[in-house]
């Protein structure tokens, strides 16, 4: 049994990209491993958030975790801010990191480019993420492709700590889906599907009504060919839709290609939309049940208690190794 940790930001709407890239693996891993899945509210505030919206989104994402199939009896689900040790270890890690390595983070470059003033929180974001992972000595981190660089930094910081203060941290491994680790935008297959894209037609939100989903898929950009063939280099748009199809139907790429041989895109897109709806509709029904049941806060409290027991101990161990006087 391995230890698994991951997190999702409660900023804006969760998308089908988050679901395929990360949440589906959360659900898969919970059966055989000790899992910690959190809503990373402390990361969300690295860009300005309306307090009311942050509260609402944090609860919405927690409910979506459960609705997507995370079972609180198997996995610990909690809010990052409820386990205070994350912020404390995050601070300790900022003192281990270098400006140069944080400046190289592509997520930081993307989020800060063209801005007059860039928050320091956004800059040190990856040190907090490293703390999230290492505080549990996690073995596996299920994420999409865009988080690989942050995981490399996490390993660098773990190594640096271990060589300065003695072996303590486990080297975490990135765990991504074979296909679908990077679900692309529906209007431009050179960009990843993202909740921060100003064009809502570019992404499928997990809470989009079924008819909106059908419309978005029917309008998704495709190349001018007719063949339903998986070839990300030459047919990036149709390949992206095939990845989504595969995840939502459970069919392999070969099975999908065979099913549409010689048929063009029309029928493929219509059936794709129905597969996506067949995944999202029951998820939405469970989401509304959970939100109205009032059980969410109990789940989050119990998840945070179990997480804090481990996280608090890690911070004590780390502080002791670094030379802090511990309370006696
Ligand atoms: P976030 O909130 O941007 O995204 C959450 C997860 O969804 C994946 N993802 C995608 N996967 C495939 N295709 C896409 N288009 C797509 N868009 C998003 C992301 O890779 C991620 O796995 N820094 C993290 C949150 C975080 C975290 C952590 C993750 C904070 N602490 C500790 C793991 C461990 C982030 O911003 O994810």
TrEMBL record:
InterPro entries: aa-tRNA-synth_I_CS (IPR001412), aa-tRNA-synth_Ic (IPR002305), Rossmann-like_a/b/a_fold (IPR014729), Trp-tRNA-ligase (IPR002306), Trp-tRNA-ligase_bac-type (IPR024109), Trp-tRNA_synthetase (IPR050203). Keywords: Aminoacyl-tRNA synthetase, ATP-binding, Cytoplasm, Ligase, Nucleotide-binding, Protein biosynthesis. GO terms for cellular component: cytosol. It catalyses: tRNA(Trp) + L-tryptophan + ATP = L-tryptophyl-tRNA(Trp) + AMP + diphosphate + H(+). PROSITE patterns: AA_TRNA_LIGASE_I. ATP binds at residues 9-11, 17-18, 144-146, 183, 192-196. Pfam families: tRNA-synt_1b. It is an enzyme of class 6 (ligase). Its EC number is 6.1.1.2. GO terms for molecular function: ATP binding; tryptophan-tRNA ligase activity. Homodimer. Catalyzes the attachment of tryptophan to tRNA(Trp). This is Tryptophan--tRNA ligase. It comes from Paenibacillus roseus. The gene is trpS.
